[in-house]
Amino acid sequence: MKRNIYLLFFMLAIGTTVIAGNPDRQGEAGASELLFNPWARSAGLHSMSTSFSTGVDAMRINVAGIGRIENVEFAAGNARLYEGSDLGFNAFGFVKRVGTGGAFGITMASVDFGDILLTTNDQPEGITTYSPSFFHMGLAYAHTYENKISVGILVRGVFESITNVSASGFAIDAGVQYVSGDNDEFKLGISLRNVGSPMEFKGEGLALQAGLDGEVVTLDQRAARFEMPSALNIGLSYDFALGTDNVLRALANFTSNAFSRDQIGVGAELVIFDNYMLRGGYKLDFGDSAGALDNLYTGVAAGFTANLDISSDFTLGLDYAYRTTNPFKGSHNFTVRVGF
User: pLDDT, tens digit, for every residue of 109-120?
Assistant: First the structure.
């Protein structure tokens, strides 16, 4: 048990050292889509389920949670980002339990920009359309020790491109979850997300033809390198039993963002007969705001889950979430899950 506690504090110390960010660096990071959440279960709590996220959701919140999957879970998620912007975010995930206490997961996600008009100086009304490609793929593994502590790691490839410019890199997530109490009612989670390689755009789109001494030469412009949007999350939750079949879960979460203001929030989730869930949360920015913009996701989030037992070993889950945003008109999340 002491070893497990030491591991928790080690993760916290490492995370604090790696993040060490402040709002003065806002706008310096790239690949901000790594902070998007396509999964409705956790989105309904403003992504604050660090201490208890499980299954496919855990690969976006706290990868240690995949170690608590019962057998197999598939999920497909869609997020209508920033209602009014026509942006979408699609994801697919798969988690399977392996061996004794282990679990393996695969996750893929992409941003849907729609069709964008391609214009030139000579044809400002457009000549065709194109769509940028922002794609991620991650492999995850987690292990649960004595049903009390889970540790996990995820390596994610990040690929961004338009027709003639592209960038690639990788990011690593790591997490720990700890449960305690006679019925595992107390939970603590720590996750460190998006720590990885710098990225730099390259390609023919950065080349410029210009006249020099009567000749046409091609000048290759260098784009600035950018870092991943690293974040450290620390979450606590406690389950209050309401009779024999219902549970009310209260939670609190702190997020330290390397390139924006830190955030803190609280929430609650009501579990009814293990098959129906109602959830909601509130998140706000705090700390020195001088010269820094507010984070996009602040305020209220809410959602629900319905799990349908198709058979004794086959479950279909439907999740929905809504999050307020500033600006725009909020985000909507939809997820379909299959477990067996």
Answer: 999 988 888 887
